[in-house]
Amino acid sequence: MGRPVRTQSEINEQTTLGAAYVRSLMRSQLRAGLAAFAVLAVVLGSLPVVFSLLPSDLSLWPAGPTLVWAVLGAAAYPFMIVIARWYVRRAERNERDFADLVE
Amino acid sequence: MNQAYAVAAVAVVVLATVLIGAYGLRISRTTSDFYVASRSVPPRLNAAAISGEYLSAASFLGVAGLVLAQGVDMLWYPVGYTAGYLVLLVFVAAPLRRSGAYTLPDFAEDRLESKRVRRVASAFVVGVGWLYLLPQLQGAGLTLGVVTGAPRWLGGALVAVVVTAAVAAGGMRSITFVQAFQYWLKLTALLVPAIFLVLAWQGDGAPRTTFDEPATFRERTKVTVEQTLRLNIKDPLGVAVHGRIDGVRHTGDKVALPPGPHRIDAGTVLEFAKGTAVPEATNGAYSSAGSRWSRPLSGSRDDHPLYASYGLIIATFLGTMGLPHVVVRFYTSPNGRAARRTTVVVLGLIGAFYLLPPVYGALGRLYAPELLLTGNTDAAVLVLPGKLFGGVGGDLLGALLAGGAFAAFLSTASGLTLSVAGVLTQDVLPSLGIRHFRLATCLAMAVPTAANAAVSNLPVADAVGLAFAVSASSFCPLLVLGIWWRGLTAAGALSGLLVGGGSALAAVAATISGRPQHGWPHALLAWPAVWSVPLGFLTMVLVSLATRAAIPASTGATMARLHLPEGAAGPVERVQGVGQ
To answer: What is the dihedral of CA B495, B498, B504, B506, to 10 degrees?
Structure first.
């Protein structure tokens, strides 16, 4: 399976060195994924609580309803795309670093 | 509404689907033809195809209906549907593509070397697929009913027959550009009428009062009650009645209904004066939030709205990765890197689409409030053009929406049916060859069709929410732990799937059967993801730790294959299960 580049055969044959390479790549990729997920979860996940704490009489705060509509109806999407782009750049950089390491 | 245009639009969409299915049969005879050819699909085209398949009845009709009925809180549905792709991207997309698996059971067997895990995963794919097919059929019945007056079961049956025929013939999914075209068709079908509707709304003086008040009839409105209604009104209601209320016949006389429960027989025509607050059905799907409609978390359907919000968020954020028709599409990317880039484009495409349904929900509250009375809120998208425009313009826009809605049912339903039928063929039924796949296709569609006849009052987006909850409690732990944790064992995966997914499935069954209806027991069962997802993860981890000795010997090699970039380590992919 696979065409052997020098280090790739090590990785595939489960040498200690190969396993260490894979583990370090996995760790950096998992860190990137968890960081992106944490930003998503903290920002969007806190919104229901924030909204529930809005003053109950909205006439005291005229921008309130519009703001909620704007956040959930529109702003959430570009926010998620920004996270996604950041993550993809980071993940690809991790893979490039890994490739540099094995060659 | 002039039915001719709408019928023509639906007919064109259905006919195109059948023809494309037949054409696909000729140019793509085996699954492997499709998959191998698709390796070269560029991210943009593939992303449009994924989005085309993903945007279903729930997105096209259901979100607007829920926003009409319950207000801003329901925007968590589209946000969650989109966020699900982001979570899929950061934890699953590239490794799943590199695994070479193109179904979830393939992945489970490959990673854990266990036929038993494979079989349980197959059962869940079928369960989630059926739960997700049900609202597609309901949406189709609703759409055809609204545009032509056809009985509810007919539209569902039409979609079921067309999809079964197209999938059994074999071509449907094989053409990526068709699914991509479906995306642009759905976007156009929702965008163009939305522009006209917003212009008409501005021409009407851009009224917005109902955002903070109970929905009211803006003009004298006649409402025909199609199914017997139970109303529970809070304030005295004056209305002209043709028909039977509380067992008494009326022939056009004005009736003053005192507060309290009332029964309105099917066929009754109610005529409301301008400015009357809309009474809300209690045997419709749910009642709306009334005066606090534009305030989040005030939905009166749930006694525990904050909990319900989190139930919805967890189910949609984590459930997308386990939907059977979503996973299979990642195999069509040339490599893991392309799978990631594709997902980013998907986020953009579905995000753009989801800007539109809330517009229909808000305008529906203004101009079609009688939908609250009949509980028929999923029809909001379809009836709005007729409310705001008379004549040919309104008919044409309505026809465009009906055609787009049918495109949504057909594309999602065919993707789901293909996935479910594939799993039934491979893992459930005894092997009988190609005829056998056709049998599985019929079975894949027969069960939700039968359920569609039995369960009629579940709102479209809610039914989809339940499918997401089951998926999040079973496949999310399997995929995330399978990809990132070496300690996962077959026994752990098996018990996690059964405990997490099984308890979510039981909660869903209790909710659909309608008990319990109030308080915490109802909230916990209607929004199971809050407890069933952690339960699934916990079970999987604890049982894996207890059976540490049984970690598959191939784990190290599999992990290398999942995570090594294709370029750096050569083509380490394994083509598995392609072409039977």
So the answer is: -130
The answer to whether the CB of B165 falls within 8 A of the CB of B31 is no
Task: Classify the phi-psi angles of A3: left when phi > 0, otherwise alpha if psi is within -120 to 50, otherwise beta.
Answer: beta
> Least CB-CB distance to B571: which of A3, A7, A83?
A3
ipTM score for this prediction: 0.85
Q: Which of A8, A58, A92 sits opposite B569 (nearest CB)?
A: A8
Task: For residues B574 and B147, give the distance between their C-alpha atoms in angstroms, rounded to a whole number.
Answer: 49
Within B39-175, residue ranges assigned H as helices are 43-54, 57, 63-70, 76-91, 93-99, 104-112, 115-148, 152-169
Checking A22-30 for CB contacts under 8 A at 24+ apart, the result is A22/B556, A22/B559, A22/B560, A22/B563, A22/B564, A24/A98, A25/A94, A25/A95, A25/A98, A25/B563, A25/B564, A26/B484, A26/B559, A26/B563, A28/A94, A28/A97, A29/A91, A29/A94, A29/B563, A30/B484
All residues of chain A having their beta carbon less than 8 Å from the beta carbon of residue B294 are 58, 65, 68-69
Label the pairing between strands B248-257 and B269-272: unpaired
Element (H, E) at B274: none
Q: Is A71 a member of any domain?
A: yes
* Mean pLDDT (whole number) for B287-304: 45
B296, containing H or E segment: none
- pLDDT number for residue B153: 79
What single-letter DSSP state applies at residue A55? -
Q: Which of the residues A21, A60, A77, A98 would you substitute to probe the B interface, choosing the one with the greatest number of B C-beta atoms within 10 Å? A: A77
Q: Which of B70, B186, B104 has the alpha carbon at shortest distance from B470? A: B104
Closest Cα of chain A to B454: distance in Å?
34
- Tokens for B92, please give them: 């699953």
Cβ contact (<8 Å) for B297 and A11? no
Integer Cα distance of A51 and B409 in angstroms: 34
Please name every residue paired with B248 in a beta bridge, in sequence order, or none if there are none.
B245
Total number of domains in chain A: 1
Residue A89: predicted pLDDT: 95
In CATH terms, the fold of domain B3-202+295-563 is Sodium/glucose cotransporter (1.20.1730)
Residue B271 pLDDT: 81
Are the beta carbons of B38 and B31 closer than 8 angstroms? Answer: no
Overall size of chain B counted in residues: 580
Q: Which residues of B384-414 are buried (b: 16+ CB within 10 A; e: fewer)?
A: bbbbbbeeeebbbbbbbbbbbbbbbbbbbbb
**Structural element, H or E, at residue B170:** none
pLDDT tens-digit map of A12-43: 555 667 778 888 999 999 999 999 999 999 99
A1 is a domain residue: no
Residue A50 belongs to domain spanning? 6-102
pLDDT in tens, A82-98: 999 999 999 999 999 88
Q: For B576, which DSSP code?
A: -
Residues with Cβ within 8 Å of residue B331, at least 6 apart in sequence: B35, B38, B97, B100, B101, B102
Q: Is the peptide bond before B516 cis (omega within 30 degrees of 0)?
A: yes
Please name the residue of chain A whose CA is at the shortest distance from the CA of residue B361. A73
Amino acid at A88: V
Chain A neighbors of B75, CB-CB under 8 A: 69, 72-73
Cα–Cα distance measured from residue B375 to residue B367, given in angstroms and rounded to the nearest whole number: 15
Using CB atoms and an 8 Å cut-off, which of residues 256-315 of chain B contact chain A? 294-297, 305-306, 309-310, 313
